[in-house]
């Protein structure tokens, strides 16, 4: 059987309606000027007949690919039967089923005892709920976040986000958060966890006692920096020693992306609070959760709420996804095999051109040295039918976020395109040829 | 034909999974301890065979009722055809169709020239985007909001919300917002718009120059206080005179609830920014929009973003809803007739017991004088199979938020139940009997 | 004996050193371009031989006039004897003597039980200490201040200040303070204390529970608005009911200016905290105190400090001033007689020209209707040798702040000059002639 | 001639008036429970006839000793002649004379072109003015301060202060300031200026673009950490590169304490803004200045003000001090000789007991390893008649801040007492005997 390949047509859509009626804030549509209409698995189709291979996966929202048939059927059946669509925070069959599945398939096998808070169905809402809870429980205001961290765009989460352009959009100074250096920020010789401990142990450092330490184990937007288990364990110990809660923001790295369901598995830490969103619904539907230890579930009823915290369609597809992919070890084995495949392939490319790689599991990238070169790579990929994006403070990392379900041969074909585009970009820029 | 009536069974569901795994923050589930599984139109069904009449409508999220067949079919067709589910902010057929419909069915006929910003699909995200934009455009920080206003739970929107219990959940002081008295706040003899003008005209009042004035025309959560057109026009004039943008938060009052698509129609004001969510998707799917004049569309690409800002399922159902209900005047006529019916009925009940009513269009309520009495009314209604909730600073308003599509006879039957429960509650409390 | 009169020479000093070396922030020196070198009592002398009558009194810092001989001698003796000049917060004879005199001459006769905190010797430091303490004691953040209030220029006190130009200098948004309307702010028919009570009693008003209500009984900078005893008592009751501390900022109105030592005497309120500065040292030396009930003296040692909190020269002159002026009732009788004289005179002038007066005791002024006219009056006065300034949101009030020790005949002569200049200014502006 | 020695009597004063009427916030009076009444040069006298040698100098406020005869006489003459005492910001002979002297004696010889802003006469007011100006000039909010920095107690300056106990007194979260590691904070191998550059160059570090970098060249309260010239030059370069103003807070280290008038002299940097206070008046009178380059003198008239910004007594003594001590190089030579003497002596003591020393010039100390031991040393010194205090995050540094005018023999005798008390404390604690 032949491996299917992307088939872009190169035809541009009519974009007049967007120019007339959509805000200038739109962004992906600018670098990928097509109008899409259909998608299944790893493939997206535009309205001119073009076919694109998706190495972006909705920024890790589509770990199981587009419109996975099992999830799709579950949703069709549910809708056809007039299942509750919008349920505020009322009990519904779909929610009960989701909670039971979360308990049986995810929490129990991992020995985790968390309660689930259904926040408004976006990641930033989950982060806002997490830091509110940490502040309430500890009676402190300061949240320690990290350089290059990305946690959302509403004011509470945005204060935790490192990116200056995003922060500038706030229009007010962002307060009650300190950004400390992430693992490796000052190079391999400086243990930034030690620096943090030094400052928190010093009553005159100017760093107030924190309510929480908020960390991504891999910084999806911030350049695919991956924390080491040792560093993460130190951070967990520091949090505990100084009376702060440890929050792992697993919105991008969770749901299998790193080769575990939770990205912190196997690292020797158990966060007090975990945020999930993106791939949680499995099908790309808006859904977010804040999980936490029962002991800190100190919310008053309705103290944090939101109209769409009962998105039952998402409960249905999330339940189907947990059951289908996480009931046994097959999917995990697949992810890990593909993660290793990706690692080897990127290392080989990087080695050839003197570049470096970043990341963990199935979230990895190559540092192109500048945002300009990285943008030329992704633009060339798109011309070839490969949807791929950048990451990092300067958008200098070309980032592979393929669906975790991608067929190995297709994956390989996509990486071939990427390699060719990198080679071409470097040749144009530096006149480099592969050795 | 007999008018269908609620048929509650009184049987309680097994709630152990919620107690074990859902956060204590859940609230509606406490006063309505049933597990729902199915719904159509104005009816919700629990898993013990009970049927409930919905006078809450997902807090005005289900203006067209549950699972409206036209919307449902559109969504089933779209999913079956593998339409794009999650599209970041990429162009899709579903988005283009939605924008065109918004333009043709809503904006053009009303002479409104707005651009649409697809924010994260919750109301609070839309509000955060609105105040960010106002701060950016004006270069000012302060937002003027109003007593009893409700605008969301993320830190930026929460700062605009009046409710002390919600605000207390922030864990940090809420800044950059001043709450001024809403229309009628100090009684009928004090024009609070004049008070605001007085303060803004005084360079020594301590009230900084505002970026925006953020207002609901009817305060859905804050007690169904309805602003008069005169007051609203004054506020609009004040905003303009002092260089502030006027933001109408139409999340609860919009999408037909007041007898217009936008709640500010016919009041002689054109907001600079409008937020929509709740009933926008028509079927209860998460969807939110921030609309604004093209002149203030000063966003940089991606300056505000969010994973789920391209919820294409919602685009599909929203498009179907706009076309089905808003292409001609039939639906509007129905809403207004039902609004008048509701007004008369509540006025009659209130008159009988010396109570007062509040609200406008199809969002009206009765002030029971205390939260305790109001809670006893809604609890009694629920026992009779009527889902209804309270509003107001002390939860003292029993609030009727029936689906706008409700059959007149069913509506009347539901209001009969409400009246009986009010009578019973007042008899218990005061020994009052109807005259 | 002839009443001495001002004798300005009209000669300008050499100001090159100021232009070269002093910041552009200087202000009084611009409208009074003379170089002064000597002063005694109510008279200031410039270095060209001119003599000026002082109706400004260092903004009420020189209630006992310049260089009062009793205070001057006490200070000369102290310095000659090598008395401690700078004592940090160490015990010194001078401090003990001051505390004993404060207790005997001021506190005991008034039945007041306060502890004294020696803050940094400026009014703004005293206010910062007051609001810090209130926040610590109550565990709350919000301070309620009033429209047109002036409390200082450091960030904590500036947030409590109403003036937009001063606030704008902060360079950061000013937080944790709400400005509510002062007595009479919305005209005689609106009781603004009732408005405040309404908002604080409403859990959904958006006004958080306050740590303190901070009020001046007469707003010295804000336009000489004088609170009525009834209003002030209501404010005190509101503070108590809502768990807030009542802080009276008596920096400008205290030390006799209103006809009492404390401006709140005789009004039926006892503040929890009082701030004093300006005339406290009696001779114009930097000195400030924060007084409070012993029960709320919850400071940890050194929790608030400052290098110059032990300005012993000021202790010496303050002690001499308290003893000389406040040991019996003579000075009070003089102030009240002069206050009545001032009231009658200003009322007569105002009546003649259809103007209104403001203030209480020896801090009164005439509202000239515009800052421009007021400035023309004070400029004309200065040309005639009378030093006088304006107050109010638009600098529209010509403000008489004569030394309290002024001789009646000299006072009358000064008021003659003022009247003539007002007449002249109004004639120029409106062509008005006295009737 | 015999070297005079301290002669404490050990008699305690009557402190009842303090217990009754002074706030619990008093601190130095607790560890030095005497009542002082007289002082000259390096000696303080209590009211029981005891004599104390002052190694604290009002925390570096009395660099020229107590009541220096030249300054004292100048002040006596000025007061006797009825010189202006309190002058708001009016031109006075005393101010002109001070400005001319500052220009001639300090600025011109050092090639510095600064304008002087007379702030409220406390250090914290000067710092507040400095950061306000920096924020105004740059249009940015964030100030970068350093670990262990101390800048004052009003809210703006307190936000820049590192000490947790002081910060906790604010009662509100302290915002708009980031504390970065000072020189040597992470040990000798980590160049913290490089860390700062790394973060400011990274648009995703979460550190917003700063308005100012605020630094002490020696941290007087924070443990006598002395920045190296190399580090300070890097910081200056970083400030310039990133559009921030460099503010040197020279309140404690200025006025000769380090062996230069300004502590930054000879280090290769010229700050944009400098704050001075403490020893500026020379005699311990409240006085503070904010100096800055004329180009950034962007204040509007009166935009920052304060009642006591014209403390003319302080102008008189400051002028006398500048002329007497700074007109030629004699005083500097004396300071440097004594600084070297102090360095050798402390190094010798430290070497003997395995301790380390800190500081520069005449502000040096010994790290006793714990606050407990340091407190026992200073208590023992006080019993022997030596007034000396601690510094540092844990109050672990015994700090020598002798008057700069101290006689060499007396200095030596005081250091003998210190050495003996250190020896005794270490013997008690560790059983260590000098080798």
Automatic annotation (TrEMBL), chains A, B, C, D:
Transmembrane segments: none annotated. Keywords: Aminotransferase, Pyridoxal phosphate, Transferase. GO terms for molecular function: diaminobutyrate-2-oxoglutarate transaminase activity; diaminobutyrate-pyruvate transaminase activity; pyridoxal phosphate binding. Its cofactor is pyridoxal 5'-phosphate. GO terms for biological process: ectoine biosynthetic process. Its EC number is 2.6.1.76. Belongs to the class-III pyridoxal-phosphate-dependent aminotransferase family. This is Diaminobutyrate--2-oxoglutarate transaminase. It comes from Edaphosphingomonas laterariae. The lineage of its organism: Bacteria, Pseudomonadati, Pseudomonadota, Alphaproteobacteria, Sphingomonadales.
């Amino acid at each position: 059987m032949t491996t299917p390949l992307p088939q872009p047509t190169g035809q541009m859509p009519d974009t007049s309606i967007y120019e007339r009626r959509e805000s200038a804030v739109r962004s992906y549509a600018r670098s990928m000027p097509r109008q899409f209409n259909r998608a299944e698995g790893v493939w997206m189709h535009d309205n001119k007949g073009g076919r694109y291979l998706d190495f972006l996966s909705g920024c890790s929202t589509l770990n199981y690919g587009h419109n996975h048939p099992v999830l799709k059927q579950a949703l069709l059946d549910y809708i056809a039967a007039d299942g509750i669509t919008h349920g505020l925070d009322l009990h519904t069959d779909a929610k009960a089923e989701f909670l039971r599945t979360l308990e049986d398939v995810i929490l129990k096998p991992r020995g985790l005892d968390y309660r689930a808070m259904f926040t408004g169905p976006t990641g930033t809402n989950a982060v806002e709920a997490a830091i509110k809870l940490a502040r309430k429980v500890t009676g402190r205001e300061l949240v320690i976040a990290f350089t290059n961290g990305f946690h959302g765009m509403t004011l509470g989460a945005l204060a935790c986000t490192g990116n200056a352009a995003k922060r500038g959009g706030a229009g007010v100074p962002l307060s009650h958060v300190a950004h400390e250096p992430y693992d490796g920020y000052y190079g391999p010789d400086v243990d930034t966890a030690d620096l943090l401990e030094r400052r928190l142990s010093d009553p005159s450092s100017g760093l107030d006692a924190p309510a929480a330490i908020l960390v991504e184990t891999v910084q999806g937007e911030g350049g695919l920096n991956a924390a080491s288990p040792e560093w993460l364990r130190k951070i967990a110990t520091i949090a505990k020693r100084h009376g702060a809660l440890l929050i792992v923001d697993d919105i991008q790295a969770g749901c299998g992306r790193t080769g575990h369901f939770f990205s912190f598995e196997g690292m020797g830490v158990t966060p007090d609070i975990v945020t999930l969103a993106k791939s949680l619904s499995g099908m790309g539907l808006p859904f977010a959760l804040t999980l936490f230890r029962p002991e800190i579930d100190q919310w008053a009823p309705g103290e944090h709420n939101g109209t769409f915290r009962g998105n039952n369609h998402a409960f249905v597809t999330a339940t189907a996804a947990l059951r289908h992919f996480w009931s046994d070890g097959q999917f995990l084995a697949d992810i890990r095999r593909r993660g290793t495949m990706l690692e080897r392939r990127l290392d080989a490319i990087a080695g050839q051109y003197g570049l470096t790689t970043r990341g963990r599991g199935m979230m990895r990238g190559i540092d192109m040295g500048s945002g300009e070169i990285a943008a030329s790579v992704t633009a060339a990929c798109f011309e070839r039918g490969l949807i791929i994006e950048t990451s990092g403070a300067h958008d200098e990392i070309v980032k592979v976020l393929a669906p975790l379900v991608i067929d190995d041969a297709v994956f390989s074909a996509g990486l071939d395109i990427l390699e060719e585009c990198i080679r071409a970009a470097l040749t144009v820029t530096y006149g480099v040829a592969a050795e």
